[in-house]
Amino acid sequence: MASRRTTLRLAAAAAAAAAVAALACGCATVPTVGRPERVTGAGGETQQFVQPIPPVPNANWTPEQIVQGFLAASASFTTNPAAARRFLAPQLRRNLQPSWAVTVVGSQLSAMQSRPGPGNLEGESGQVAQVATVTLTGQQLATISNIGQYLDSPGSQVYKFRLTRISNQWFITDLPRTSLLLTRADFEEVYQPRNLYFWAPSGQSLVPEPVFAPQQYNYTDVATNLVHALLMTNQDATSWLAAATTTAFPNGTTLVGNVSVSGPSAVVNLGGAAAGASPQQLRRMAAQLVTTLTSTSYQQPPISRSVELEINGRTQYIGGDRVQEPVNYPDLAASSAAAQAPLYFIGSTGAVSLLTHGSAHQVAGRVNRADITFATIAVSPTEAPQLAGMLAAGSGCMVYYGPLTGALGHRVLPGGQCTSLSWDSLGDIWVVTAQRTWVLPAGSRQPVAVSLPPLPGSSPSAYRVLSLRIAPDGVRAAMLVQTGSGARQVLLTAVTRTNSQISLGPTVTIGASLTAPAALSWFDPDHLIVLAGSQLYEVPANGGAADPVGAVPPGTQSVTSAGPGQIATSGHGQLLTSSGPDQILQPAGPGTSPAYPG
To answer: pLDDT digit string (tens) for 477-489?
Structure first.
């Protein structure tokens, strides 16, 4: 069968629509720009985004042009599903339902169209029609699940579309398993990063589950979709946080109607199993809803400033209040606006030191002993800071720990030299050695070996953990690993604790575009700071693109952060620290192993 091969460049959806019009020899009128849509949110706040104007199929278009038009219309599918359905045969049109699920691909797709030939008309036995196949080959970057989870899945992929000529016009009769394809540019234009919030097992904090939600004409639609996702995620085994978090919503809880967003408040009417929730459970459900719908993560405006919870249409008074606000649930979700934190480091004499307001001095107390020289230190995020330090010499891993002003205990860990040291919000110390990852739990400090997860297509023995940092919520963990081939990756995983066992769950890749990452630290609840080469990058936890935030001198080895204006690095025995939101690094004197609490 003869075929022809061309290259389709899928830029922004509007540009793709224009390309379809050009290919159609002017036989259809297709706008070449999108129209600005104003979205109203909490308290009348508005944001604008360009809503692409999708093309309309034309009888003169070839099968390849029909597929290209379908891809352009796919960018509008969540807000205007009829636009994409116009390219489909009637039976397939009925089956394609709006969903968040899409595949993100590169901008270059190679297209091969088969020569049209005879075939049976779908659903009409014995009737012969012309059929054709269009095969697209290109680079797949990621997939977005039906609840908005971003899953990095790079690799070359083939997508086949089958078309049939019906009433002198080509229609798509069979789609690839992944039916909607968006380029990264299109995806970033029409999807917005958001967070869903679930409970840590301790019940003392909420953990953000990053998702991407389609842009909508109004915040009522966005809020409705997010609440649906909040209820669905509990039942979705694909969530990498599922085993490490809990939800207050009883299994079988449903959303009755749409979420109503009027002024500063969102009204959420739940039904199903929610009718049997206890007052305490209602409060925990409200906490998840309030935190999700009022979140400003990833610099998104809040959908609402408060939430009113109804059960089957009846208003619920929680704590005596009809309107639930973030102030009702203080400190459940870590804030991006961290207070100014002290910076600890090892001074040029080997003493544990402290930098405050530009002035450095040794820490008073028993942590600075003449017989101990630390190579790396970490300080707990608790009100009464505690120190953990690894020795600079020796073939094994010896960790000292204790209050900054008191006596230190110590543990010797097998598995080679220490390579990473950090604390979590529960007071546990996390230690990475050349061969193992350990936790020294608060209280006993009896070492517990951590069970590592396999990488996709790999096994725990096929990679080595170089560094590990626990997020402020105490559940999410960021890992820098090196695979058997020598390649380095930044991964997110979740901590699961069962009795005395500690394990790390499924991993997701972030910062995939970075070359040879060397060190990392949590920047805020939604971002990491990653050192790669002579550059620092702000890396979103949702899998989005890494953003360079500043150059560092060659030979920089470590980085620590406590939020905007609080980044410190060290290399060649010198400290650099940032001041202000611009993250400009300035020399701060001699020192190594800078450590903000955490």
So the answer is: 999 999 988 999 9
